[in-house]
Amino acid sequence: MLQVSRPTTTKKVALLSLVALLLWNLRSLYLTASYWETSHVDISELSEISDLFDFEPADSEAIRKVCRDTDWNRDLVFTCERSGGGIANLRNSILNCVRYTIQAGAGLVIPRIVLRSPVDIAGTWNRETAELDHVFDRTHFLQSLEKSCPQLQIFTNIEEIPDYDPAYRAGKLLPEGLVEIVPPEGLVHPEEWRVLFYNWLEGSPDFGHKPNVVDLEPSYFQYPVHTDGEPFVLDFGRMLKFNSGARVLATTTIKNLLQAYDFNVDLSEVIFKKAYFGAHLRTERDSQHGWPPARYEYSKYTTQSNLYLDQAISSGISIIYAASGDASQIARFSEDAKAQNLTVTTKEDLLLGEDRERLEGMTSDQAALVDWLVLQKSSSFGGIGHSSFALNIGLWRHQFAERRDHWHGPQFMSDELSQIYGAVNQYPEYSFCLWP
Q: What's the confidence (pLDDT) of residue 291?
């Protein structure tokens, strides 16, 4: 289960495990019934469905309680304009930005997104930015904050801040930079961050000028999400929903997949039973550079492909939906699967005509949203531990799993719905600091 506190004694561990188990079970029953307000739909009614991935804004008492207990400062506003990278990193950075904003009791300018290079996905920084709805549903984000944290003031842009003067800015701040040592598990005492922040703010040259506008640098995997308790953790991620264009295209991909292979599924299921296997093949150039195959066994194509094919076979599934930013590796994987009487398909195979044109008009990160959503609903899923993309999908799926000891092997994250391959405890920054 997701850790809800750092255990100190055996009794505490047992008690926390029992409490978390009960929370997870109650939560899973609720989420399975209401995460998407989709009634039971027969497969013959596919044509009437346009969006399988829509859900209501977060309306969370757990978040409201934290916001009620916060001392708010109307003369303080945060901006978060430099979040970039892959979808999971981007998502985590924006959620961390909101969490630090609540911690400080500040207002918030709607975050922006740094666009990656269209020719080199490793080229992210020092590039132009886009509005939040380039990836996420902006209206859903605003409504979630309005419902769950009404005290937090939101500004469309920096010029909207009352009495804002661009000549006075408190400066840039990397949130975890206020702490001398941050272990891989994240901030040891996140509750102390507010005091550290205000000490820093009072030392800035323009502190006496109101309002104080602070530009938060992107913070990816340093905030320990378990600090806030299980209900908060699960609700917080619901503030971000992918934009409607990606959701509709993912729905079309699934409809075409179900029809092409004559699957008999209940579309109201959050995760399909006895349908397709989802494989995230993380072998793109940026991954190979960050985790060189010579040093990281799970970066190797052969390691990943063998694991996924074995998992598909053991799951009794013959159709594999594969996701990767490297078309040549997908082609290779398809041939390897064919040798074992398995079939690989992709969004590019399944989308035709105007739908294919819409896909080709997307950036690589927008197109990855389609894969993310289709993989979410796969009957069984496989990914690699050093991929925050794969782990984020696995963690989301885990709330519907029965197995609760997912961090204890045999793989980095294991339950009956997903296998995220890698050594146990290999990436503590993901285990502790990734919002599901």
A: 78
CATH number of the domain where residue 210 is located: 3.40.50
Residue 306 corresponds to which tokens in the numbers above?
A: 């063998």
In a domain, 407, yes or no: yes
Lowest mean pLDDT among 113-117, 321-325, 349-353, 357-361: 113-117
- Beta partners for 113? 83, 130
Domain total in the chain: 2
Question: pLDDT at position 37, please?
Answer: 42
- Predicted confidence (pLDDT) at residue 24 exceeds the cutoff of 70: no
The share of the chain scoring above pLDDT 90, in percent, equals: 75
DSSP H or E run through 77: strand 76-79
Exposure of 130 by Cβ count < 10 A (0-12 exposed, 13-18 middle, 19+ buried)?
middle
Please name the amino acid found at residue 198.
Y
| pLDDT bracket for residue 418 (50, 70, 90) | very high
Instruction: Sort residue 63 into left (φ over 0), alpha (ψ -120 to 50) or beta.
Output: alpha
Q: Is the predicted pLDDT of residue 31 greater than 60, yes or no?
A: no
Q: Provide, for the chain, the percentages of residues in helix, strand and coil under a 3-state DSSP scheme, each rounded to the nearest 5.
A: 45, 10, 45
Residue 243 CA to residue 122 CA, distance in Å, equals 23
Q: What is the pTM of this model?
A: 0.88
Cα distances (Å, whole numbers) of residue 69 to 64, 176, 232, 430: 9, 22, 14, 28
**Residue 12 falls within a domain, yes or no?**
no
Closest CA to 348 of 359, 337, 340: 359
Asked whether the predicted pLDDT for residue 42 surpasses 80, the reply is no
Q: Let me know: does 430 contact 394? Beta carbons within 8 Å.
A: no
Owning domain of residue 308: 18-48+243-433
> For the segment 227-237, what is each residue's pLDDT rounded down to a tens digit?
999 899 999 99
Q: Tokens for 238?
A: 């619901």
Residue 352, φ and ψ in degrees, nearest 5 = -130, 165
| Same domain, yes or no: 253 and 392 | yes
Question: Across the strands, what pairs with 107?
Answer: 77
Q: Cα(79)–Cα(216) distance, rounded to whole angstroms?
A: 6
Question: By C-alpha distance, which of 265, 277, 298, 369 is closest to 53?
Answer: 369
Q: Which has more confidence, 159 or 293?
A: 159
SS3 state at 354: helix
| Euclidean distance between CA atoms 203 and 180, whole angstroms | 17
